[in-house]
Amino acid sequence: MNPPATKYLITHLRHVDIAMPELDTQLAFYRDLWGLTEVASDSGIHFLAAEGSPEQYVVRLRKDPMKRLDLVSFGAATPADVDLLSSQLVRDGVRLVHEPRVLDTAGGGYGVRFFDIDGRVVEVSADVAVRAHRVIEERESIPVRLSHVVLNSPSPEATVAWYGRHLQFRLSDTLHLPGRGDFMWFLRCNPQHHSVAIARGPHVALHHISFEMRGIDEYLRGTGRMLRNDIEKIWGPGRHKAGDNTFSYFLDKAGNTVEYTTELENVDEDTWHPSVMHMSDPAVTDQWGTANPVNEFVAAKSFNDPDKGLFVAPPV
Q1: 162-171 residue pLDDT tens
Q2: CA 187, CA 148: separation in Å to the nearest integer?
């Protein structure tokens, strides 16, 4: 008899919440240029949805004197799974922000919040109301959904181990920098190659937030719209080897890196074996050879500013 399949409690990435002093220009960027839809606002907090996604929102913007990552939110299948995860976290000594409870936010739901090993706030929720969404049309260059989030850590091996132990994330692939060792770890919570990646950086910070487009044409049209509006490009357009996805990276108005992507690989979890990809091979960073070289400028922008909100829960 085969052993029972492992039950994974995390199902998917829901939303990424960021705070910044310059809220008005940040809101205008995500709503009017990047292509998200404002669905709710309350006392200086704005909720932005992707038109093709059933999630109530994929980005939350909050005005704050400090620039920070407020939280990263993941889905669970049921409230019972949220309770089970919470009990496991408490058993293992993970510090909760709050115990499982009804969430007072767009879409409601039932969730728990806690700090990860680096001091970020993580939320896991279930029973969030599904948003009415639609099929993104051909040539419509707006995000279909949130794709993934990448986080910087000065001790990435420990961070990767923490996400594996406590949230059951599985390693898909690793990037290796010659002379500097392993550099980025791609972690999945479902068949998508990665919903989270952990990058080696000089401090804890947000590396980038990635948004899935309908296809190659829509991805390039969105990239072109950013360029025509003089949004600072960091890297791209190109196509990574890890995940086999396209990439164009830009800076939002608070200096966070955001990405348009498409065609992120799905893996067979029963047969997939992680590999180490060496960045000395130019095809690893960009299979097409169309992107600007990875240099100190790209690295510095990706490091972002040190997160000022570590081990401090956002007010909402």
Answers
A1: 999 999 999 9
A2: 10
